Each structure stands twice: as C-alpha cells, then as structure tokens.
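Practice problem 4.
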C-alpha cells in the first residue's frame, strides 16, 4: 500500500489535516507545540484508491526527546511514497524550513508544499513569501475552514494506483454482483465478518513507564514508538499494521495512564483517547512492570479490559530486573485481578526482546477463543448438567428454570439463557455457569457474556400455570 506522509515543524496543523483526510479524530490536536510525538497511521480511501496516511511528529531540535522524534520522522519519510511538507501561513518563511524542504526534494518523490492557516486576504499575501522555497507544487489551505483541502486530495489521487476488483472464479458471478449496491460500492451489510482472516486489533495498555512503547517496538521489530525515561512520552495512540507469519495485526500503543490527580496538560486527552481505542479493539495486552510492586492503578487499568469485554493477555515486562518468582507473582495477580481470571500471563523483557515472540502465539490463541462459535448441543448439555449438580435457587418458593441456551454474538462469545424468571438469576450463579463453560470449552483469554432472557409472555404464563 502506498504511503503519504505529513511532515513539518511542530504546531503547523499536521494532525488537524490528518484527522480531516482520515475523516475521524485519531490524532490529538492542541495549541501546544510537540503534541504529536509518535507517528499516527490510518488507511484512507479516495474513490476506491487506498493509501496509508502518516501523521509524523514535528521536526524540532529543542530537546533530546524531540530530536528522537525528528529522527523517527525522517526515517518514515524515506519509506514513504508521497510527501506533504506543511508550514504555518501565519508566520514568515525561515531558513530551517527551507533547508528541510530542500532535503526532502532530493529524495525525488512527489512532494507538495502546503501552507496552512491561510484564513484571510492578509494570510494569502504572506503566503507568496514561500515562493522562495522553489516548490513546483504549492497549496494554500485552511484546515480549520476546510478550504483548499479538496485540491490537495485531488493532487494526491493522481499518484495513487487504481483499484483492482477481481471476482472470485469459484463463486457465481451473479452472486458477486449482488454484493454491490446501486452506486457500485461493496455492500458491507451483506458480508458476514470473517474473524478467521480479518486483522487482529491489539491494544497495549498500562501505567506510564511500564514499557508499552518498548514492547510495541519489539513486536514489530522496529523503533516504531519513541522510547524515553520521561513519564508521559506517549500521548497520541501509536498504531502500527504488521504482518507476522501470514497474519496481519493492528497494534495500538496507548498513552500511559496516571492517577487522576497526576494527569497534566494534554495527557487528559490521551486518557479519553485510550478508552476510545479500546472500544474498537479485540485483544488487550495489559503491561505490568514486574520490577515494581503491583498497585491499585494497575487494577484500575486492567478494569478497562474487563469493561470493554476484550480478550486479554497480562504481560509482565522488565522480567530481567524482577525479584519475583513467577508462580508467586501470578498468584498475587490472580488475587488482585479476579475480574481477569481468564487472562494468561507471560513474562518478557521488551528492551532485550526476550520471549516477546511468544506473545504472537498467545494473541492468536485468545483471539480464536474470543471469536469462536460454541456448539449449541454441547452448550445446552453443559448448562443442563450444571443446573442438575447445583440447582438454581428458588424465588419466593417458585422454581427458576433455564429452558435452553443459545449463542447470539461473538467477540466475545455472548450467550442468551432463555428462562422463566430471568431477573432472578443471581450474579454468583452466573459465575458458576461461566466456570462450567470454561471447563467444557476452550475459552482461555476470553470473557464470556451470559445474558438471561425471558420467553414471550404467553409461554411464561403457561409455564406459571
């Protein structure tokens, strides 16, 4: 897939343009220079032509952290196909911008100079000053007012490869045509989700400085995320699409979470964005620092994986610095994270890359369990046997019955328990049934959602009689 990268100094509007082109709020935007420290990526579709849009960190030498950001950005530029260099139209051109732009032109790739924040006649006059850059392709735009962006997207489209739609020879051609709507677009409502072949979305969560960014870098075998001892280095979610042994994974390194009283400045946006990311995630990697004692914040963050009903793996990072015995630490985790009792635990050293490769097989395993279809007959046999061994407590002297169970959802498995008195099934009995299902089915790493449901009113009244 072709890559289009947005490049420029801090606070020129790269993230705002990224969000507009991607048509969703992915990158955090603020007036604080240096808000974007890692690259954000999103697949964008222009009239059937897809490309990977990259929002890079600002080019800045003011600190060691931002010099690392700059180095990563320039490395991303080398691997991109189309370059968009952005400048602030409210400011006069400077020598540093001009030198950076010349450096990019030497790469011999399609390159455009985009002058952002051109909101008035005065700004338009000032924009002419950028003619000294000698750019062959120049766009004056205002992302905030959505002016000039259409012309820019049309220029990008000229360099994109045309889409190829090929019918599967093994299927009936009439059936192939029926999958498209009147506008000739693929009708997704007619397609069932192919869990077996879709990209697995993996969210990396944890406290600040537990090594989430180092883990992402080790998983994709690249310095993908900026790593620093400065707490709160990662504020934007850092996403990376990576293929491993024929399977595609979409990793997101979320911002580290602090105690509420310690969240500062733009980090409050990062906390909200983390929850947004988890709404659209399959597997959570809960990263714990095994060189430190567990604390209440670890439990709260683990609660997010439970809240969003995600397949979960607990990753004990910095194991090379840990003084714990593995079995003893797992025992404490099971005691403190009872709501994640189903999550497997693995110890790694992300900086050294030790045992990180084993995470892939764990992801595949818990994802398969997370998306599986449980055999209906076996499901009902298990529920029936469980209620015989330990009958449901009666309600005001009347029996409470489960007539049958049926799976109605996936990711995670969602099971309806059709009953005569659905409101009378205590949560402790649901936990008992959940444990019985785990004994009978392979459900490691995946939550199971049990929902009591009543039959129609006529059937219920007949049962009462």
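Answer key:
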């Amino acid at each position: 897939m072709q890559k289009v990268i947005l490049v420029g100094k801090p606070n020129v509007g790269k993230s705002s343009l990224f969000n507009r082109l991607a048509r969703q709020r992915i990158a955090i935007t603020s007036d604080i220079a240096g808000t974007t420290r890692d690259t954000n990526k999103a697949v964008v579709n222009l009239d059937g032509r897809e490309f990977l849009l990259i929002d890079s960190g600002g080019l800045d030498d003011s600190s060691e952290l931002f010099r690392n950001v700059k180095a990563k950005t320039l490395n991303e530029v080398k691997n991109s196909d189309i370059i968009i260099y952005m400048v602030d139209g409210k400011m006069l051109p400077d020598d540093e911008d001009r030198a950076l732009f010349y450096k990019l032109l030497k790469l011999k790739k399609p390159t455009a100079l985009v002058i952002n924040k051109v909101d008035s006649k005065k700004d338009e006059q000032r924009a002419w000053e950028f003619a000294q850059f000698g750019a062959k392709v120049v766009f004056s735009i205002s992302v905030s007012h959505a002016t000039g962006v259409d012309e820019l997207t049309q220029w990008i489209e000229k360099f994109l490869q045309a889409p190829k739609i090929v019918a599967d020879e093994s299927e009936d051609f009439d059936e192939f045509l029926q999958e498209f709507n009147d506008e000739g677009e693929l009708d997704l409502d007619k397609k069932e989700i192919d869990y077996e072949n879709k990209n697995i979305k993996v969210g990396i969560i944890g406290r600040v400085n537990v090594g989430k960014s180092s883990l992402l870098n080790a998983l994709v075998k690249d310095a993908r995320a900026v790593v620093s001892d400065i707490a709160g280095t990662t504020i934007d979610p850092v996403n990376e699409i990576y293929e491993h042994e024929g399977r595609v994974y979409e990793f997101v390194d979320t911002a580290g979470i602090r105690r509420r009283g310690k969240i500062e400045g733009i980090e409050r946006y990062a906390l909200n964005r983390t929850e947004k990311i988890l709404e659209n995630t399959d597997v959570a990697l809960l990263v714990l620092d095994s060189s430190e004692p567990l604390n209440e914040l670890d439990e709260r963050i683990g609660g997010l994986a439970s809240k969003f009903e995600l397949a979960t793996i607990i990753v004990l990072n910095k194991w090379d610095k840990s003084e714990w015995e593995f079995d003893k630490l797992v025992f404490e985790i099971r005691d403190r994270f009872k709501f994640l009792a189903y999550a497997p635990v693995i110890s790694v050293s992300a900086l050294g890359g030790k045992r990180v490769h084993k995470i892939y097989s764990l992801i595949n395993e818990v994802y398969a369990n997370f998306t599986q279809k449980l055999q209906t007959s076996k499901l009902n046999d298990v529920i029936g046997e469980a209620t015989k061994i330990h009958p449901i407590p009666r309600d005001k002297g009347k029996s409470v019955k489960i007539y049958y169970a049926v799976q109605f959802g996936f990711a995670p498995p969602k099971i309806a328990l059709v009953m005569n008195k659905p409101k009378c099934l205590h949560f402790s009995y649901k936990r008992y049934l959940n444990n019985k299902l785990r004994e009978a089915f392979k459900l490691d790493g995946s939550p199971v959602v049990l929902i009591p449901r009543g039959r129609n009113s006529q059937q219920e009244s007949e049962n009462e009689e």
